[in-house]
Write the structure tokens for this entry.
Amino acid sequence: MIRIISMLLALQATVLLAAEKRESIFDRIVNIEDELILDVPNLPPLCDKLDLQRQKINIGPVNLYVEQEGQGIPIVLLHGGPGGTHHGFHPFFSRAKKFAKIIYYDQRGTGQSDYIPDNGYTVSQAADDLDLLRKKLGIEKWVILGHSYGGFLAQVYMLKYPQNILGVILVSAETDQHLTLDRRRLTDFLSEQELVKLREIASNNSLSMEQKAFNMFLNGYWKAQHFYKFTLSENIRFSKYYWKQDTDFNRVMSENMFTYHLVGQFNNSTIPTLMIEGLWDLTWNTDKPQKFHDYIPNATLVVFENSGHQSFVDEPEKFFSLLQDFVSNIQQEQ
């Protein structure tokens, strides 16, 4: 099986080089595999190929896994989930090392950081951990960039530690969980056959988290949050390295998110804030960007027209040009 997968990877790489465009959600191709693949092939994490400073940093209660690259204004990246890892940012954010110091880390209870809940995992605890990390790194103020759930964590950090922030970038960020939004659009792009297959995989308790993720993306679930179809190598690395967390972490943190009421909390915020949304992020419907912007009115909203949940993957040239402009404006105002 591994040999077959390796051959497929080589073939897929050749096809992608020759193709004019990658398959997108608009092609509406039905993805169904006859059998489950239980042996997810091995590929090394992209971290191994990048010139990064890697270390475990003790912030008191726990050790956090941290990577750094580049020079300049510090930008710390808050990964999604709850329960994702920093791997989702590789290799894309290496583009930004030309104009900033990029700080990747795994939040407590995820990835290569310690799994020590103390009194219980909470978003507030994660915000406190983040500020302890800032102090340990010797940074006075920094830019925080939160993706997905990391965007929710960024909002809580904004409320707790506004004095330590130069600017905030919210990329396809989770909103106040009490905000009323239209139904998500995923079923508009998945066939009934794919939905049936995905329910079968999700309910198969004999599969590991890695096996479930790999097979779900093979059977069309990439459309949930991506404008372009995963390559096989991207699927392997996402399944093996992105979704790593303590037992029951996602459920505990997801429930804790409902205890926060964020609407109305940012009306007087003066923190420079950039809000980036993908028009075809099927996690939400088309009403989400404006409703989100309404409760952070100081933010600048930019909607990427050919992106899903990860605009830094789908439209990298536009994304990192916008990020560089945002950083430059902050530096000029200092």
